């Protein structure tokens, strides 16, 4: 029984790690992309309003996009089940990108208000520590290190190829 419990825990952790790595990869750049919209007056006004929300309204604002994207993700699974795998995966990836961008930006705007909720202030640091631990474990794995080294080698070879063939940046 202990074997199955450990297997289930490791399987769950591996699946969560994949999601966390995607979120980690996309969180900052996607939030920055949406932050550029704040240069437009309507979005700047909207962001100021969101940042000024009281704690429970901030929680609702933060949770709403995640709930709103659930039917889209279910539709993607339905499409995959009906044999439209490429379309389903495309919808799923699109929903994940849009959801991550929205949640990242909304979290940036609502975090000060959310931290005023006692339960959130108590649980968020624990969640963050656990998430950071899982990501650190993945990044310390042999596979991650090997792929990172391979990626570095490919980039160096590509840069050398471009330089050797006069394709360096700024020569377009």
- The amount of beta strand, in percent, is under 5%
Radius of gyration, whole Å: 21 Å
Termini separation comes to: 63 Å
> Which structural category fits the helices and strands?
mainly alpha
- Low-pLDDT runs of 5+ residues are none
Shape: globular
- State the major sheet: none
Query: Helix proportion of residues, in percent?
Result: over 70%
Q: How many domain units? A: 1
Query: Number of DSSP helices?
Result: 6
Mean pLDDT rating: 87
Extended strand count: 0
Helix/strand order, N-terminal first: HHHHHH
Describe the protein in words.
- It is built from six helices and no strands.
- The chain has 172 residues and is mainly α.
- The mean pLDDT is 87.
- The chain has one domain.
Feature tags:
6 helices, 172 residues, mainly alpha
Ordered list of secondary-structure elements with their pairings:
Layout: H1 2-35, H2 41-51, H3 55-81, H4 85-114, H5 118-139, H6 142-164
Brief account:
The chain is an all-alpha fold. It contains six helices and no strands. The protein is globular, with a radius of gyration of 21 Å.
């Amino acid at each position: 029984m202990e074997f199955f419990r450990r297997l289930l825990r490791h399987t769950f952790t591996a699946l969560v790690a994949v999601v966390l790595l995607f979120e980690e990869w996309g969180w900052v750049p996607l939030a920055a992309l949406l932050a550029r919209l704040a240069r437009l007056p309507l979005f700047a006004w909207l962001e100021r309003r969101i940042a000024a929300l009281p704690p429970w309204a901030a929680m609702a604002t933060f949770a709403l996009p995640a709930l709103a994207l659930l039917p889209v993700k279910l539709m993607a699974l339905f499409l995959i089940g009906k044999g439209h795998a490429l379309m389903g995966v495309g919808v799923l990836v699109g929903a994940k990108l849009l959801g991550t961008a929205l949640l990242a930006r909304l979290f940036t705007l609502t975090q000060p208000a959310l931290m005023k909720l006692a339960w959130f202030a108590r649980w968020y640091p624990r969640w963050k520590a656990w998430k950071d631990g899982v990501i650190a474990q993945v990044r310390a794995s042999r596979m991650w290190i090997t792929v990172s080294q391979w990626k570095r080698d490919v980039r160096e070879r590509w840069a050398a190829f471009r330089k050797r063939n006069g394709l360096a940046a700024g020569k377009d």
